[in-house]
């Protein structure tokens, strides 16, 4: 059977859950958003718990190789503490819970200390899990190493009779490749774009700015393809990523065949001004959009983005003005299609968006109701 990786986006409303399934079987899940109303067949949001368990059962698994939470906002962690097995407390174990072989979190998820009324109970539980794994020294990677977190960690290590640098191997800085994966052995590498240490200066940070952002490079045969996995970054954060990446001469890490745009198609990921009919992106954000390759795709993990009069005055994302910007720039780079998770094949009964990555490139596939799969967008040669 030809070698193939897959990237899957699940229709969970204005929220994020996506998965990279490698040709050799390893699975990397980004975020988790299960809405309780999705337990009913009368809502368009997918029953994420059932879907993921069915997929794992079909693969003969009860675990993900990696679960990465880009940040701690509710629409990226909702239902996670009921679905996953957590190591720090017996009450979160057993009973069909799905195991996490390695947890990836931004440093913010291990250190944030807002008052209880400003954070969800699930965030508090995940923070405990992250701290537990960090102290145990296994099954976790922490992205960025702010001094505040180190100041918390070192006394704990001293109590355990361990050196102050005993957990250094568990911290990953921006601009580095994530250990444990390689193009040679796995057909994939993860390049960390964010968070930066500047996101934690003086102990003050914003979840969205301190979120995980990756260039995921997939290889099939001798060909490589790039997927940008972006949390809920704002335009200032994206400009920082572009500026710093260019300064380090890593421009190839900005290119993309597939991009998961941030914050559910919000104009705030493009500019501070929504615009009347279309958002005018900031210069470096524009550069990132134009780093899309020929035949590329844009995915918005959001509710439908409809072009009707009322949409232009909508306060909360998704924003039609942002969609028009993405579509115009996608056309400029000769990209394929702008896709919305809650629109395909229709807004009443959306299905996961599945992308195959093969020697021929990245192609959007579509699962029929009976479970068969048919390619609906291929990569024919372009005229001229």
Supply database-style keywords.
six-stranded mixed beta sheet, alpha/beta, Metallo-beta-lactamase, Chain A, 384 residues, 23% strand, disordered C terminus
Can you lay out the helices and strands and say which pair or pack?
Blueprint: E1 5-9, E2 18-21, E3 27-30, H1 48-58, E4 63-68, H2 74-77, H3 80-83, E5 99-106, H4 107-111, H5 121-136, E6 140-143, H6 147-159, E7 171-172, E8 188-194, E9 213-220, E10 223-230, H7 235-247, E11 256-260, H8 283-289, E12 292-300, H9 320-332, E13 337-340, E14 353-358, E15 361-367, E16 373-375
Parallel strand pairs: 3-4, 4-5, 5-6, 6-7, 10-11, 11-12, 12-13
Antiparallel strand pairs: 1-2, 1-14, 2-3, 8-9, 9-10, 14-15, 15-16
CATH class value: Alpha Beta
Number of helices: 9
Q: H/E series, N to C?
A: EEEHEHHEHHEHEEEEHEHEHEEEE
Question: How many distinct domains?
Answer: 1
| CATH 2nd-level architecture | 4-Layer Sandwich
The biggest sheet, with number of strands, parallel, antiparallel or mixed sense and barrel status, is: 10 strands, mixed
* Total strand segments: 16
Termini, distance in Å? 33 Å
Percent of residues in helical segments?
A: 10-25%
- CATH topology category name: Metallo-beta-lactamase, Chain A
Beta-strand portion reads 15-25%
């Amino acid at each position: 059977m030809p070698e193939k990786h897959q990237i899957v986006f699940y229709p969970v409303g204005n929220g994020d859950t996506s998965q990279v399934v490698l040709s050799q079987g390893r699975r990397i899940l980004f975020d988790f958003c299960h809405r309780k109303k999705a337990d009913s067949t009368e809502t368009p949001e997918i029953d994420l718990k059932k879907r993921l368990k069915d997929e794992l059962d079909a693969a003969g698994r009860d675990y993900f190789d990696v679960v990465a939470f880009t940040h701690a906002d509710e629409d990226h962690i909702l239902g996670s503490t009921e679905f996953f097995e957590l190591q720090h407390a017996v009450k979160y174990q057993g009973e069909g819970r799905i195991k996490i072989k390695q947890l990836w979190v931004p440093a913010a998820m291990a250190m944030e200390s807002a008052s209880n009324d400003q954070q969800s109970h699930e965030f508090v539980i995940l923070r405990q899990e992250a701290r537990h794994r960090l102290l145990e020294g296994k099954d976790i990677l922490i992205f960025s190493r702010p001094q505040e977190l180190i100041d918390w960690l070192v006394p704990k290590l001293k109590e355990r009779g361990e050196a102050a640098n005993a957990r250094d191997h568990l911290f990953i800085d921006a601009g580095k490749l994530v250990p444990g994966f390689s193009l040679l052995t796995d057909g994939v590498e993860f390049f960390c774009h964010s968070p930066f240490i500047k996101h934690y200066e003086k102990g003050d940070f914003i979840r969205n700015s301190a979120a995980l952002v990756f260039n995921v490079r997939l290889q099939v045969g001798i060909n490589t393809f790039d997927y940008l996995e972006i949390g809920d970054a704002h335009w200032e954060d994206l400009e920082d990523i572009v500026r710093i990446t260019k300064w380090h001469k890593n421009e190839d890490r900005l290119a993309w065949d597939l991009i998961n745009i941030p914050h559910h198609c919000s104009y705030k990921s493009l500019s501070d001004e929504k615009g009347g009919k279309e958002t005018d992106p900031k210069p470096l954000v524009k550069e990132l959009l134009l780093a899309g390759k020929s035949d590329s795709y844009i995915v918005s993990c959001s509710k439908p983005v409809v072009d009707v009069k009322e949409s232009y005055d909508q306060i909360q994302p998704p924003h039609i003005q942002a969609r028009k910007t993405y579509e115009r720039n996608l056309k400029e780079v000769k990209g394929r299609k702008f896709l919305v998770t809650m629109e395909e094949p229709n807004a009443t009964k959306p299905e996961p968006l599945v992308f195959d990555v093969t020697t021929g490139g990245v192609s959007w596939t579509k699962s029929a109701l009976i479970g068969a799969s048919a390619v609906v967008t291929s990569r024919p040669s372009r005229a001229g």
